[in-house]
Amino acid sequence: MKRRYISLAFLAVFIYILLIALLVRFESASPDASITGPGGAVWYTLTTLTTVGYGDTYPVTPGGRVIGALFQLMSIGVLVTLISTVLSLLRSRLLPLLMLSFKKNQHWYIFSEVNPRTRLMAEALAKDPAAPKKHMIIFFDSGTGDDGILPAGVRTAFPPEKLLAFKNGKGSADVFAMGDDQAENDRLAWTLKDLPCRVFSMSSFEPDRLSDRLFLFDPHDVCARLYWHLYPVTSPFETIVLIGSGRYADALLEQAVLINVLAPDQRISYHVFGDFTDFRNLHPSLGQIFDGSGDAADVLIFHDEPWNSDLTLLKNADRILFCGDSADESIGRAAALRRACPLKGRVFVRGAAPLEGFVTFGTPDQLITPDHIIQRRLNETAIKLHNLYHDQVAGSPAWEELSGFLRRSNIASADHLPVKARILLGGDVPFTPDTIARAASVYEHADEELLERCRRIEHERWMRFHLMNNWQYAPVRDNAARLHPLLLPYEKLSRADQLKDDYSWKLLTELAKKGKEG
Questions:
Q1: At what angle do helices 2-28 and 38-49 cross, to 10 degrees?
Q2: Burial class (CB in 10 A: 0-12, 13-18, 19+), 406
Q3: Which DSSP category does 31 fall into?
Q4: How far apart are CA 137 and CA 154, in angstroms?
Q5: Beta carbons within 10 angstroms of residue 493's beta carbon
Q6: Between vectors from CA 422 to CA 222 and to CA 290, what angle results, nearest 5°?
Q7: Whose CA is closest to 42, among 81, 15, 13, 16?
Q8: Do 402 and 382 contact (CB within 8 A), yes or no?
Q9: Around 365, how many Cα atoms within 13 Å sit in the side-chain half-sphere?
Q10: Strand pairing partners for 153?
Q11: pLDDT exceeds cutoff 70 at 142
């Protein structure tokens, strides 16, 4: 962009010098000319372009008058440009800074650009009951954004780092890097991670160590988590068909394996159609999850044939997910299947808007919310979960000392809590303070048979998470090499290690206590 402006400036200077030279050449041939040299020509152009027009110099030859007419027309453009530049400076720099200077002590929500995602997030924050009462929504606008911004939003040409410098540590701030360019999101996140603000960056990158002020979210993972919680698997014997290729399909399959752990003797069947080559290569331990070495005996089948080659399977499936990266392709396939045959189960389509006749998921208004982007509740629950473990296991690190992987491990465990509540209460129940309290009560009064069942479920879930991240068994733990001595069937664990899985269920009691206090 900078080179383009420099090139345009050189071109403008070249054209100006050329017109001056032509004007001098035309006028110098007339004895009546008032423009006889370059100095007079420059003076004439300046008075014309600035619309001053003293009248002391003017062209008299036909060629000179043509050049003069060009400068007169250009003077209108200069005037319009000057006015628009002044207005732009007022709108994007001076007025916003003047407004923000009076509100430095308020909480600022700063967005790295203007796009449909940031507009949705700004609208959600404006209505968020958990947001600070006094806050400002600020958009950095590089000049390429749209004009449909919240009336309450301030639009400025100053990037987030300069806005934070202007704020100078007064009040608090959250910065949202939610552009289409992940590399730019990452760049901004790492630029700001040590400044007095929280940074929420839309990125699939995960460093070994995360700053306490840096939060990364992957929209594909958010979509997958949201789907399995909105439409949970309640039967341990479901047949599920996933159709699609790409990052959404990969994330939905991965989260299905991690979240859908319901019973020690479950047998959920996953039939997957699409290109999952990268997924299979990156998760070589899938065979250990689905070979029956644990209590669960789920089935995962990758089909190489076309998705519509087995209509009997599709007709009898409990649910079918059309979940490719191309929403249009998913919609077309779902419509074709519905026309072709009657279906036993529900059909889910990842799309941009609700569709009649299908259950649509992953729409922008579902994904772009404070709960899913900031993940306030999930992160708080994960921290509580780790603190329970930290109190139970001597020498374990504090939350601030955990690697990115171990934080994700706690988040995955916290993400399974709604499933635990359904296991204890039976059926499809919402994860509300009331159900949390009831589930906690059931667990507190559970007999040994139920407690043992709960421990087996949690160990299976824990093993799946580690195997999906390519950990392997070894007698001695080595985090760097991803080796762990507890990656064994439940029966082979010591009694002390079996009892460690209780802490993840006890979190329901802690959450119930918090609900009563709140």
A1: 120
A2: middle
A3: T
A4: 6
A5: 17
A6: 65
A7: 16
A8: no
A9: 5
A10: 137
A11: no
Any alpha helices (H) in 238-310, and if so which ranges? 247-259, 277-282, 286-290
Quote the CA–CA distance of 136 and 130 in Å, as a whole number: 14
From the list 445, 453, 458, the residue with the least C-alpha distance to 503 is 458
C-alpha 148/C-alpha 474 separation (Å) is 57
> In this structure, which amino acid lies at residue 496?
A
**b/e sequence 42-63, b meaning 16+ C-beta within 10 Å:** bebbebbbeeeeeeebbbebee
pLDDT digits (tens, 9 = 90+) for 233-245: 999 999 999 999 9
The string over 351-368, giving b where at least 16 C-beta atoms fall within 10 Å of a residue's C-beta and e elsewhere, is beeebeebebbbbeeebb
Residue 328, C-beta contacts closer than 8 angstroms, at least 6 positions apart: none
Length, in residues, of the chain: 518
Count CA atoms closer than 13 A to 112's CA, side-chain side. 21
As a whole number, mean pLDDT of residues 149-159 equals 72
Distance CA 335, CA 142 (A): 41
Name residue, tokens 């029956």. Answer: 292
Is residue 512 classed as helix, strand or coil in its secondary structure? Answer: helix
pLDDT for the residue numbered 1: 44
Cβ partners under 8 Å of residue 19, min gap 6: 45, 67, 70, 71
DSSP tag of 199: E
For 19, list phi and psi in degrees, rounded to 5: -65, -40
Mean per-residue pLDDT, 190-206: 86
Name the 3-class secondary structure at 86: helix
Tens digit of pLDDT for each residue in 208-264?
666 778 888 899 999 999 999 999 999 999 999 999 999 999 999 999 999 999 999
Please state the pTM of the whole predicted model. 0.79
203-234 burial, b at 16+ Cβ within 10 Å, e below that, comes to beeeeeebeebbbbbbbbbbbbbbbbeeebbe
Helices vs. strands in the chain: H and E counts, helices first: 22, 14
